[in-house]
Amino acid sequence: MSESVGVKLAPLKTHLAGVCNCDEHMREAQIIQTSLLPKAALNHKAAELAFRFIPFSEVGGDFADFFVLPEGFIGIYLGDVVGKGLPAAMFAALVMGTLRGIHKTGTDTADVLTRLNERMVQRPIKGRFCSTLYALFNIATRELIFSNAGMPLPLLISGNTCEQLGEGGLPSGLFEHATYGRHVVQLGPGDSVLFATDGLHELRNGDGVEFCTSEMEEVWLQCQRKSATEAADFVFERRLEFADGSPPHDDITAIVLNVLP
Known about the structure:
single chain, about 260 residues, alpha+beta, Phosphatase 2c, domain 1, 2 domains, six-stranded antiparallel beta sheet, five-stranded antiparallel beta sheet, globular
């Protein structure tokens, strides 16, 4: 290769090296995000939980987890950070790490979200905040205790009825003195709760029509007597049918909690 050709090819080599580095960074981000999400459904004698996640791009800004706590609770959290793609995924990892450290300090869901907000406000990142829901399922009493910082309201199927639970709250990381309510719902055998980010609730079809709340509740009502895994699959199948091939405009994440007899 002549020296002149080598000089001309140098910028191309530099560009290709940058593309390879970007691809490698994206793969690493996907690995990190996967490690921060549930690896499988949770099957417990008192309840079963299933999880579904579809990112908007290669990685997403939604986050979720569920776990058995030693105090006799099953912990659940779900969140949605502002933005999409790699920056949102990095911020989601930061929020999840903070949240995991906080929830081990006690079982008051409102206190957990208050502390999360305080820590995010203390170290703000311009233009970054998130919606977060933290819940505890009491294994012995079947009570669901939760607090909500700006997430869509959970949907409960009980008997032949479907209802929204609790109320929203201020997103985490926006306001210094934000406080959060604590909601307690008595669940019974056969009850199911759907926790989801707004990507599921606000899915649009090719004509830009948004799936409304009443239709979401109608779909969820059809999940009576389904397992948590079957219910999660059913909801996502129906929502994607409504989208009719249109790609999602946001990350889509859901957790299903089924109370067992």
